[in-house]
Amino acid sequence: MLPTSTRSLRIAGVAVLASAALLLTGCAASTGDSGSGDGSKNYQITFLPKNLGNAYFDTSDAGGEKAIKEFKGTYAEVGPAKASPDAQVSYINTLTQKQVGAIVMSANDQKAPCDAIKQARDAGVKVVTFDSDTSADCRDLFINQATAEGIAKVQVDLITKEIGDSGEIAVLSAAANATNQNAWIDLMKKDLEANHPNVKLVDVVYGDDDDQTSFDKTAGLLQSHPNLKGIVSPTTVGIAAAARYLSTSSFKGQVKLTGLGTPNQMREYVTDGTVEEFALWNPGDLGYLAAYAAKALIDGDITGKEGDSFKAGDLGEYKVGKDGTVLLGDPFVFNKDNIGDFKF
Ligand code: RAM
């Protein structure tokens, strides 16, 4: 029997392929116009990622679409081109006017979208955050991919192991205001100070989840810090851009790179030796769980208080924990021995 996280990662890989095949043959299940299987519930659920064109959110939102089709709701996805702090506000306002049943979003900023979210909730729209939270009082529920402590620790463990537990490292993050990134970076700093006294974090730079910016920031880090031994990039966009830079440079294999990436984006860099190991969770399952949480709120089965529980399709039963948070599972480490098993 595979460990749970491996098992669900595999199921999602197959599901993604299956839905791609359906689309190719033109047989994708249609989602009703009423927004609900029997017309009585408003299952119009719209995903609002940090930005469009990010492979991570393509996969998470496809998981949401799969769930919404299962309960015969109407899936949609909207979002800004750039992951900037207040870029999501106008989308929330439009969705409120359209009276959708729920918005499922990854927040670019802890506070900036909160006034718009409040208006949405006052108008009866349920708001679920996933991946990157707002402040807890602002939304109904947060679907957390893994604990922030676990996400921080896996990255510190990987980089300190790869550089031999001493020397300079730097972080290449996403947008400077991203709630999830900042929480992880703070915890990484604490872990480094407490458990790795010979490792020095010399810089944190921001690639804004933009490929070219992240690529340029990687070059900048290597120029400014000639003794750099490692880079941690807790963003799928950042780690892929940094790997591309390193792979054709003289730093390949010398400066270690790890962080959070998708297997599809990282496969060639693990194969060519630029990257040894990196981590992530299953983004498809995350979106799937978030969509079922939105349904449970719409149905009135849960309100988001601690102890509430709901059924999330194939993933089974989930419980709401402290601060209206639902936890998906543990982060998972990918390397050359297992990356071939994953297709997302
Ligand atoms: C990027 C985004 C996202 C983060 C992943 C790991 O796609 O910044 O919020 O969770 O990386």
Automatic annotation (TrEMBL):
<feature type="domain" description="Periplasmic binding protein">
    <location>
        <begin position="45"/>
        <end position="300"/>
    </location>
</feature>
<dbReference type="InterPro" id="IPR050555">
    <property type="entry name" value="Bact_Solute-Bind_Prot2"/>
</dbReference>
<dbReference type="GO" id="GO:0030246">
    <property type="term" value="F:carbohydrate binding"/>
</dbReference>
<dbReference type="InterPro" id="IPR013459">
    <property type="entry name" value="RhaS"/>
</dbReference>
<dbReference type="InterPro" id="IPR025997">
    <property type="entry name" value="SBP_2_dom"/>
</dbReference>
<dbReference type="Pfam" id="PF13407">
    <property type="entry name" value="Peripla_BP_4"/>
</dbReference>
<dbReference type="InterPro" id="IPR028082">
    <property type="entry name" value="Peripla_BP_I"/>
</dbReference>
<keyword id="KW-0732">Signal</keyword>
<feature type="signal peptide">
    <location>
        <begin position="1"/>
        <end position="28"/>
    </location>
</feature>
<protein>
    <submittedName>
        <fullName>Rhamnose ABC transporter substrate-binding protein</fullName>
    </submittedName>
</protein>
<dbReference type="GO" id="GO:0015762">
    <property type="term" value="P:rhamnose transmembrane transport"/>
</dbReference>
<dbReference type="GO" id="GO:0030288">
    <property type="term" value="C:outer membrane-bounded periplasmic space"/>
</dbReference>
